[in-house]
Design goal:
Number of helices of chain A: 0
Oligomer: heterodimer
Structural class of chain B: mainly beta
Radius of gyration of chain A: 13 Å
Structural class of chain A: mainly beta
Number of strands of chain B: 11
Number of strands of chain A: 11
Helix content of chain B: under 10%
Shape of chain B: globular
Order of helices and strands of chain A: EEEEEEEEEEE
Shape of chain A: globular
Order of helices and strands of chain B: EEEEEEEEEEE
Strand content of chain A: over 45%
Distance between the termini of chain B: 40 Å
Chain lengths: ~110, ~120
């Protein structure tokens, strides 16, 4: 059973920069895993932010960016806004199934 | 505007069955892979299954086993999840999402979810 691991929680100050990561128990995360990043706020459905490592949806704010970093998928938020406080999930494709990471609770404080 | 509306959730006893539906609008339904994702109360997201636009290819999570079946009726712009032998751990909100043209394509649009409660 493949496990996808994210930081359980991170805290960032408004206006700051933070990087969330997504690791696979199967080894290095590459573009072939088609990393996706989603945001979820309490009581709401998930909202897609990033797909295929670094591609943004039309609604994704410019301050969000995706990349591969040190064998992991990464989501970087720059100039963080208070409304960015949320749970963030990565999603990796393992050839015949998707697996979500456990989520990172981002606090803006 | 892409819209996805789930329905069919509710209270069901352990061992029971339920069929969830997801109706899509604002896009050509049969051109897109569709997926189901669930979320237990207070827990993270868990992928359940997805299905190709023409219904000829499906993938599912290991935990599904033979209990859940994903299907679609393109004539009704509808996606389904038949859930049998339900257990307490199947309790949660079930979301449908629209992907792109490949099984690994992005899940760009999401419904608001339907709540399934498995309890006696």
């Amino acid at each position: 059973q493949t496990v996808v691991t994210q930081e359980p929680s991170l805290t960032v100050s408004p206006g700051g920069t933070v990087t969330l990561t997504c690791a696979s128990s199967a080894g290095e995360v590459t573009s072939g895993y088609h990393p996706n990043w989603l945001q979820q706020k309490p009581g709401q459905a998930p909202r897609a932010l990033i797909y295929s490592t670094a591609n943004k949806h039309s609604w994704t704010p410019a301050r969000f960016s995706g990349s591969l970093l040190g064998g992991k998928a990464a989501l970087t938020l720059s100039a963080v806004q208070p409304e960015d406080e949320a749970e963030y999930y990565c999603l990796l494709w393992f050839g015949s199934s998707w697996v979500f990471g456990g989520g990172t609770k981002l606090t803006v404080l | 505007e892409v819209q996805l509306v789930e329905s069919g959730g509710g209270l069901v006893q352990p061992g029971g069955s339920l069929r969830l539906s997801c109706t899509g609008s604002g896009f050509t339904f049969n051109e897109y892979w569709m997926t189901w994702v669930r979320q237990a109360p207070g827990k993270g997201l868990e992928w359940v299954a997805n299905i190709k636009g023409d219904g000829t290819e499906r993938h599912q999570a290991d935990f599904v086993g033979g209990r859940f079946t994903i299907s679609r009726d393109n004539g009704k712009n509808s996606l389904y999840l038949q859930m049998n032998s339900l257990r307490g751990e199947d309790t949660g909100v079930y979301y449908c999402a629209r992907q792109g043209g490949f099984p690994y394509a992005e899940a760009s649009s999401w419904g608001q979810g339907t709540l399934v409660t498995v309890s006696s």
